[in-house]
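Notes from hallway chat w/ T.B., transcribed later so I don't forget. T.B. wanted the structure written out for a chain they're using in a teaching module, and asked if we could keep both sequence and structure tokens in one place. Agreed to drop them here.
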Amino acid sequence: MSQPTPEYNPQPPDRFFAGYLFDLDGTVYLGEALLPTAGETLAALRLRRTRIIFISNNPTHTRTEYAAKLTRLGVPTPVEDILTSSQVMTAFLQNRMPEARLYVIGEAPLCDELRAAGFDLAEDARGVQAVIASFDRSFTYNKLQIAFDAIRAGARFFATNPDRYCPVPSGGEPDCAAIIAAVEACTNTRVEAVVGKPSRHTIEAALKLMDLPAGECLMTGDRLETDVRMGLEAGMSAALALTGATPEAAIATSTLRPTYVLRQLQDLLL
């Protein structure tokens, strides 16, 4: 006689980890304020000499800006402890098509990072070897037309992150997934790779930065489809923080099962 399947009822962690990876928007802060208990939780984990890094799919800020913001909010952070989708995209392209001519639908921080890495950023479709879709709050029909022309002429198509929206204090802003959908719809071309969380490209970069076995690490974030998926696929434990994009009710209908669920970051302290 088969045994009944145990009910899935995730709780906060019952142990500490050697390493912690944190999402930022909706997990550590929202807008210009730390989320409740975030500051004291991070301080307490650092007192235990745990390894902590921060990972953001949001490419509209540089690593330096993220480190400065955390420090300003009371969480002193060196730039070396920040990993962004812009950084992962730059490394991805350097490994596959160095110094390529790109058309980037994105904001200045991503464009500046790609230029600094030796890429030629185009203003039109001529000679474009790859179109890069990203979070772009100045997206226009003309940008879509240039991407359309470049891809129809043979350009490859990559994107920084799969997020549908970015949480902000007023609710949310349409994110990179909206740009990907527009380009895919008009070109009938699927994006080849999306390099931010939860991709293997970000997993590899994060584990290299952590310098710890995956099983000794906990990934914490507010999204099932990016943060939790990345942690689980990397072989880490994964904690869903109910502080941002994901309501508690979504857990029951998702095929993704976080190892832990946190009502606030303080739940990490046992």
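Follow-up for T.B.: The mean pLDDT is 95. Might be a good example for the class.
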